[in-house]
Design a protein that fits this description.
The protein has 274 residues and is α/β, with parallel strands linked by helices. The protein has eleven helices and nine strands. The strands form two sheets. Strands 2, 3, 4, 7, 8 and 9 form a six-stranded parallel β-sheet that branches. The radius of gyration is 25 Å and the shape is globular. It starts with a helix and ends with a helix.
């Protein structure tokens, strides 16, 4: 009799323990390493160059800033999703329409970092680019080096705000992204942009189409393809010189990335992906 009651008590306790387990949340606490693994977060954000092949990329000012201002300063996207952003600087110009037509033929949206003086010459083209779904962003008023401007307030007002105001007048949208000419800036100027709710965007692949000595179609396409990586931001130009090589290189670049199942997106989609 005693043995039977003991068995019944044991069974009762066992049943209660099962019910208790079902009511409790036994999901393990997700630490940062687990989160990074599940989202495939990159461990390093940097500009690719030929030293990357040997694994000898030195830490640059850009990489330090991407760490210091992780939510406001971007070299590339933070995850390993197969996305890529084509970006074009220094326009708009006579080559911009050719680039837009090429992109539209592939149903691709890109990002155009525009210069104020060029915007002023081609307001209807700027409006058309925006209306077609491409992202319009700020590349200063006259493409001067930020290090030449000692006053941060004047730099903001004359180079960035003036360009923002003009773009807002044309498109109805205030740009939220800024790319400093030559990739040159300072921590103080980055912090000023953060104060004004703007993000700084650099690049992770430089096609060097700005170099008149080497900007052949072959060389531009080769550099864009050579350093292919997830959530890359590719630097190209639609203004500032002869950009026919850039126009011609787009077919090979786009086709190569698509063969590897990459999706072309605007910069804001990449930097906001995580």
């Amino acid at each position: 009799m005693f043995t039977r009651k003991l068995k019944q008590l044991s069974f009762l306790l066992f049943s209660l323990s099962i019910i208790s387990c079902q009511q409790r949340d036994f999901s393990p606490e997700i630490n940062q390493n687990t989160l990074k693994k599940s989202h495939n977060i990159k461990t390093r954000l940097y500009i690719r160059n030929d030293n990357f092949i040997a694994g000898k990329i030195p830490v640059s000012h850009h990489e330090k800033r991407a760490q210091k201002y992780s939510k406001n300063y971007f070299i590339e996207g933070k995850t390993t999703s197969k996305k890529v952003a084509l970006t074009f600087d220094d326009g708009p110009s006579m080559y911009t329409t050719k680039i837009i037509n090429k992109l539209n033929s592939y149903n691709i949206k890109a990002t155009f970092f525009m210069v104020g003086t060029a915007i002023k010459k081609h307001p209807e083209l700027v409006k058309s680019i925006h209306q077609q779904g491409h992202l319009v962003a700020n590349h200063s008023w006259d493409h001067s080096n930020a290090n030449e401007h000692q006053s941060i307030e004047k730099y903001w007002e004359n180079q960035i705000l003036a360009t923002n105001d003009l773009l807002e007048k044309i498109t109805g949208v205030v740009p939220k992204l800024f790319r400093p000419p030559f990739g040159s800036t300072t921590d103080k100027k980055v912090e000023k942009l953060i104060e004004k709710k703007m993000k700084t965007v650099i690049w992770s692949i430089d096609t060097q189409d700005w170099n008149d000595d080497t900007n052949t179609t072959k060389n531009i396409a080769s550099l864009a393809i050579k350093h292919i990586h997830p959530e890359s931001i590719i630097l190209m130009h639609d203004g500032g010189g002869n950009r026919q090589g850039t126009v011609n290189a787009l077919d090979e670049i786009i086709q190569h990335y698509r063969q590897l199942d990459y999706q072309f997106v605007t910069v804001d989609e990449i930097i906001n992906s995580y």
